[in-house]
Specification:
Elements (H helix, E strand, L loop, with lengths): L1 E2 L3 H12 L10 E2 L3 H9 L5 E2 L11 E4 L3 H12 L7 E4 L6 H7 L5 E5 L9 E7 L5 H12 L2 E5 L5 H10 L1 H18 L4 H20 L5 H8 L5 H11 L2 H19 L2
Parallel strand pairs: 1-2, 1-4, 2-3, 4-5, 5-6, 7-8
Antiparallel strand pairs: 6-7
């Protein structure tokens, strides 16, 4: 069951069913807005409802895909139906397992932090779980999360704040760097479409090189940067401006904010 029919709720519904992990007939969705209920039903998710019911008690796993500010209204709706043996997986940023244990009558709670590329099956998700979740149940959830890309389990829940800072917010950092390159390419005389193609294909090629063998980022840098060449000139400028240090400072700022939101 998925509670919440927004972007991530729909992403999970489509990913779970596309990978045949669960059929549309067996997937139940709880969505507050009638217009979204209609959209799900029209897409073949016929078990989509505006209100909870006894059917909630029959679900093996309940995915909370609502915004944190909407959770307080959802807890009492679900609490009257949830049983102690049911698993609850939350993807709400900053909402810790301890809070869910206090709000819902089960200890089998898992917490995950996906990122935006999950919407195209290229996501990175970090997740953790209460100690009452069995290895078999962890494996089951791991497989579900992998339908949206890749996932990694962390025993320490505190590491999910760092996951938020690195991969949760990470796509925005990549877009930020890409936009800087695109803007400078335009300043060098390229058109906007030309600039976007040059930069986007460069990033795609670099990622495929990194994933295609065992060389590290540092080793690839050495392969591209010939002594006395153009790449070395740019890298020296980055070092002089302490770009890597400032990136690290930004990541720490994101981590600090993630911790603050979880209090």
């Amino acid at each position: 069951m998925i509670a919440g029919g927004g972007n991530m709720g729909r992403t999970y519904a489509d990913s779970f069913t596309a990978n045949q992990t669960v059929s549309k007939a067996d997937l139940y969705i709880l969505e507050h807005y009638p217009e979204k209920v209609a959209q799900f039903v029209n897409a073949g998710y016929h078990n989509t409802y505006c209100e909870g019911g006894n059917w909630v008690s029959e679900m093996d796993l309940i995915v909370l895909a609502v915004k944190p500010q909407d959770a307080e209204g959802l807890y009492p709706v679900l609490a009257q139906y949830i049983k102690p043996e049911q698993m609850v997986l939350t993807i709400m940023a900053g909402v810790r397992i301890e809070k869910l244990r206090a709000a819902l009558p089960t200890t089998k709670i898992l917490r995950a932090m996906p990122n935006l590329p999950a919407q195209i099956g290229m996501g990175m998700t970090g997740f953790t779980a209460d100690k009452s979740v069995t290895l078999a149940e962890l494996f089951e959830v791991h497989n579900l999360l992998n339908t949206t890309g890749r996932s990694q389990y962390f025993e320490d829940e505190n590491l999910l704040d760092a996951v938020t800072a690195i991969s949760g917010s990470g796509p925005a950092y990549v877009f930020y760097f890409m936009q800087a390159m695109i803007s400078q390419a335009e300043a060098m005389g390229f058109s906007k479409p030309q600039s976007e193609l040059l930069v986007a294909q460069t990033f795609m090629g670099a990622i495929h090189l990194l994933k295609g063998n065992n060389l590290s980022c540092e080793q690839w840098i050495q392969r591209v940067a010939s002594k006395g060449g153009t790449t070395e000139a740019a890298l020296k400028s980055f070092d002089q401006q302490e770009v890597a240090t400032h990136i690290g400072i930004g990541l720490i700022a994101a981590l600090d904010r993630a911790v603050e939101l979880g209090r």
